Amino acid sequence: MASILRQLGQSSRRRILSSPRHHVARSWTPVRCQATVASGVADAPAVTATNRAEATLKRFWKTVSIEPRDEALAVTLDKRPLKTPSGNQLVFPKSRVVAATLVASEWENQETLLKQHSLPLTSLASRAIDSFGDETTRAEVRAQLLKYLETDTVCFHSDDPPGVVKLQQEHWDPILKWARETFEVEINTTDALFLVPHSPATIRKFDEVLATFDPWQMAAMERAVYASKSFLIGLALVMRHITVEQASQAAHVEVNSQIERWGEVEDTHDVDFQNIRQQLGSAACLLVTV
């Protein structure tokens, strides 16, 4: 245990001490998606894919398609519309054909057994459709995301060892510079134990930015912030200032520093990094428009 504590970066320890207990969003498990069984009655109660998938965790569909539905694109399993956990059809604006195609690909690539972790776009699109059309939910999520700004990873800097200082300067300083200049706000940083709170004007400005996001952007922002544990990394990704790889590296600065000093723990550090990349990648893909 002592060795583990020694390996924690200084900024990690400070952030743990100062962080509030954040809200954890409901887990959007992919198998909660539904597919309506064909019926002679329009809008008949759905016999859901959920029941069959949860009972067997086996693939039960033969074909996956993307079909036009009322000026939108619907993903279908055996011609039956895929539905979200709340029973809404999983449809995409035509401008988000890339996201629709990737969701269809997720389901097409399922083999004998249904692998929940391999459906990140499905769960993310469901979150956008089910939750972020509701203003109350949007306001609640904005408030939770802004808590991450109060203890943002990129605001806690270390002055030692040199390796982590270099990584922070390389990956965090450009994000801080971009945010300060783009939104014309003050963003406090520290190399001490606690961060000086950001000004109300700064918090208000970022809340106003989030308020302009559409449901797809809100869902992407929520996932990016939770995956990176940083409001500013998530915002830079959603606003396309940085790439998925840059966001992943920024979110992994302290772990990369530990790897440089003590080496990589196989099947731990590498798996964690790939999971971050998957989560941030799904957020970025949801936002691609044509």
From TrEMBL:
SUPFAM superfamilies: ATP12-like. InterPro entries: ATP12_ATP_synth-F1-assembly, ATP12_ATP_synth-F1-assembly_N, ATP12_ortho_dom_sf. The keyword Transit peptide applies. It holds the Pfam family ATP12. One of its GO terms (cellular component) is mitochondrion. Keywords: Chaperone, Mitochondrion, Transit peptide. It comes from the Eukaryota. Transmembrane segments: none annotated. Its main location: mitochondrion. One of its GO terms (biological process) is mitochondrial proton-transporting ATP synthase complex assembly. It is found in: Mitochondrion. Belongs to the ATP12 family. This is ATP synthase complex assembly protein atp12. It comes from Steccherinum ochraceum. The gene is ATP12.
